[in-house]
Design brief:
Strand order of the largest sheet: 1-2-3
Strand content: under 5%
Radius of gyration: 22 Å
Number of strands: 3
CATH topology of the largest domain: hpI Integrase, Chain A
Distance between the termini: 61 Å
Length: 284
Amino acid sequence: MVPAGGKDPAVAGPCVLPASSVTAPALRGLSRFAQRRGIPAGREYLLDYDVIEAFCVAGLAGRAPSTRGTYRSALYRLAETANGPPGQRPTPFAGARAPAPYSPAERAELAAVAAAQRDATRCSSALALVVFGIGAGLRPGELVALRGKDVTRHGGQVTVQAGGPGGRVVPVTADYAGRAWELARRAGSDFVFRPGPADRGYKNFVTNFALGLAADPAAPRLSLRRARSTFICGHLAAGTSIPVLLAITGIAEAGSLARYARHVAGISSSTGALRARWRAERTR
């Protein structure tokens, strides 16, 4: 519990990292959870890995898996600084539901939002988020690392080398291929998204950029998670084989597609059915 007018005991002392925008609410929640369970408020008790696990599993049971994971990561960083690395693996959380894909009208509106940005660099970066998110299904880290030279064209097919030389090759959806090639041609050897010096290892690099875009309040929010969901759902709807879809998305297991399949009419969202389909299509 935080004493009135005092500092949170969990962040007191030289061996613990200062609270950030994530760790502060995580610590407050952990303190309240510990108080309800009769756990002393001292740092040595709050930053015990078993207490953190109990808080994230039981104390945050109604929160989204992504929120629970974010809180646990922040608290584990504090605990590791104070107590050393954990002695066991964290409790796995159920996977978060995939966000709904963008509708055709929303996709058109997002491209218009990108084109309406104040300067050319911001405009091209916003368009890159749309094009390589919806058109190639890139993850945030892959978009951030993408350079113009990672995009190639053979005839009418534009492909992206996602994740560097050891990554995967992704064919860009036909509706976005021309814009993908043009963005890459302009970037050359530089980064396609947010070119120039930047902290590309920052977790919310893409999210913060998207939140800062000028747009009508009624316009759909530009989200790389929804963009990637749109790419995957589009391939499921088009009948792309499961082995091919796993290869171009970087998803390791056919059952993981169930969270996207529930957004696609006529496609079974059963994990077992998707795995059976993967086995059948793999042997063709």
